[in-house]
Fold this sequence. Notes:
Blueprint: E1 7-16, E2 19-29, E3 34-38, H1 45-52, E4 60-65, E5 68-69, H2 75-80, E6 83-86, H3 98-104, H4 118-124, H5 126-130, H6 141-153, E7 159-163, H7 171-186, E8 190-194, H8 198-204, E9 207-212, E10 215-221, H9 222-227, H10 229-236
Parallel strand pairs: 3-8, 3-9, 6-7, 7-8
Antiparallel strand pairs: 1-2, 1-4, 4-5, 9-10
Amino acid sequence: MNSAPLLSCRGLEAGYGASQVLFGLDFDIQAGEVVTLLGRNGMGKSRVLKTLIGRLPPRRGEIQFGGHAIHRARADAIARLGMAIVPEGRQCFPNLTVHEHLIAFADNRGGLGKPWTSRRLYALFPSLAARAAHSGNQLSGGEQQMLAIARALSTNPRLLILDEATEGLAPVIREEIWRCLDRLKAAGQTVLVVDKYVERLVKLADRHFILERGRLVWSGTSAELDSDRGLWSRYLGV
């Protein structure tokens, strides 16, 4: 029998003003899993992430994370419990060096026996080691994306969330990001991914959730998703 999930959402609903955008979502993520949240643009994926990290308070429902009820918690409290996000748009600090990014946020929130130190992060992303003294605004888009991931990992999160982490990157940089995620999976890191490259995601992830207009319309394993290309054309636009 599986242990209690690391993250559990039940009856999750959220919205802006009079507009409701999430409708009764139920899903779990087990520790050590790589899970994706899929759907076309505008289907509610970013709203789910904002709700999980405390930036969009749910109207109804419950979120449990690591045994704590977080649906009424502030974003900073949720982060301290061990949830970290790599945001769309990277949001690196222009006046901090690469190394300052990695030490400014360093913590061991997940209580790891072998935490992600700056040395380990430079080994994961060698190009960052060569740019350690450079400011965020001196990096290429791909380097900024690597830095955003490394910065999140420096907190040693229990759950790492990636929001469109490969968007707008050159193919060679995108593949480096995928290799990083493969290594994180092998290390047992729990990851929630929002991305559009389904062909690559079915090779990486354990399970997938598909959203359509704020509702969960399908969930299953990579093998199940890979074998039903009708889902791809119906819900994912590929």
